[in-house]
Amino acid sequence: MVRTWRYFCCRCLAAVGALSMLSLSAAQSLEVGDDGRQIVSHEVLFRCDLGDPNTTLALPTKQFGHAFRILTGHSVNDTWYVARDIAPGGSRSVLTLIADLKSLNPTAVHAEPNIVLSLQGSNAFAKIFDSRTFGGTTTPTFPPGDASNKDAFGIAVLDSGVATPADIRFTNAFWPHRAQPFDLIVEGQPYTCPPNAVGIDVTKIDPPGSKASDVEAFNPVDEEGHGTHCGSLAADFVRVSSHLGYIVPCKIVRAGNATARWLMDAIEFIVQANASEASSCKIRIISLSWGGDDPSDALYSAIKLARDNGILVVCSAGNGHESSDLYARYPAAYSQPSVSTDNLNTVLPPLDNILTVASIDDQDRLARSSNYGLNSVLVAAKGEWVECDSFEGSNPRDRFSGTSAAAAVASGEASVVLTSDPKLSYQQLKWLLVRTAKQIHPSLDHFVLSQGKISTSDAISALSSTTVKMPSHQVFAWPGFLKIKRGDSRTVNVHVESINRFRGRLNLSAAVNKAESPSPSPGFHVELSTPHIDVDDTFREVNLSVSTDKSTLPGLYFILIHAASGKTGSDTVLEISVY
User: Fold this and answer.
1) Among candidates 12, 448, 319, 513, which has minimal Cα distance to 20?
2) DSSP letters along 524-541, please?
3) Domains contained in the chain, CATH given
4) Nearest CA among 527, 522, 523 for reference residue 511
5) What are the phi and psi torsion angles at 208 (to 5°)?
6) pLDDT at 330 over 50
7) Is the full-model pTM beyond 0.70?
8) Which residues are CB-contacts of 91 (< 8 A; sequence separation ≥ 6)?
9) Nearest one of 285, 279, 281 to 243, comparing CA atoms
């Protein structure tokens, strides 16, 4: 069964048989095939490893009559393009486009659909827009920030945009105005970002490679409300707590859906903005409050591009109340090793710039709608009925629920910590938030890696503490949850991720947590393929063998996996259901 996320968790699109057409924009539509995947019609993302990209593109353009536009171009081996059928009526299907491209060189060309990802801002129990009033609660006012400060930074909220900038109540929280415009390239087209721009609207670049006006492209007006809610939640933190943080709205969502292409365009904009001397405020954090079930190498490359430019990506865990260790949600799942969509025998290394966030309620309990995962979800943040700016109506403030809210809150909290020490790298910021998370409610035990919620005060205190040290490595199991029939055996990959380019030998151990597993547990055995591992500045893996026999008691077993170097250790828990 294939799942997709919408405002109220609409699911099971796999039930749709023949291609079903859904509207994304005036120029584009979506299709749902027999496999249930929701993709953009007549459009393909592809990458070529054939040398000069200009030479590569000449043949297919002439032979097939497709329109090709560059998405990212930082290296020949990781340059992505978008191909769209330009024949009258768009007669070529996605499968035909992919087959045409692969026929050029099956081993060197990777082509995939432009997948659709949906917002995660609501759940089955709460509406996105709540019309209730708040007893006279007024909208916070934000003092102007110090845009000239060399440590000023931005949070890019990749969402549905924000309410009209002239009317929004957190105006001073926007990306600071620049004295000079700067030039950039998006999908092969030149743009000039004006001095008064607050962000970008990549959905205006439609169809692919078309040239929107600079006024349209840099005016990310919200037409749905989701981005305004998320932007205001992050703004509540960055503008009240400091004069260094700013919100940079990047509109990549239309009609409740984002696409992999729009995400790539937005991150390309962020990277070019950071590189521009005209932009004094560098974007250090990206907030993503949406996701989907389908993997995409293009999506992976976009998040990797953010990592390579030192940007932390805060992702919502999802609103299905299920294990993200078992059911992957992308792009959040790329914090774990993943299989390439181009080659099922290729494992993509985990991206260590992803911080996945679960949602908790006002009593610090795991929200009944929130996804969870001991390996994949690192921290929790407030996400139930959180007060935020109103998108429409006479009330200045609204309530917002879901892991979208939690991710936006976590992005704001990360900015508070970054304000205290702007020199923190994305890795240091991420693990500082995880290591100092406050363990308050037992509902987070075995559901979130840190078993707690972000605590900005504890994180800031830890910056000057000698007792709280940054980890040198992190260990996790892949998959983080599995089922085994009594008498069967399985093998799990144990991965160790280096932090801050740690190099050295780690001692490994794995044992059943007897306090929380069926006891006694005869016939249940776990064994690592090696008791130690030499780690460099990437990641390494070993195998963990899990075996049972007919005497093994059925139930849920928790396997504690530990990796240590001297006095520094890292743990993860593998959940195994024996039946």
Assistant:
1) 12
2) -EEEES-SEEEE-SSEEE
3) 473-578 (2.60.40.2310)
4) 527
5) -50, 135
6) yes
7) yes
8) 85
9) 281
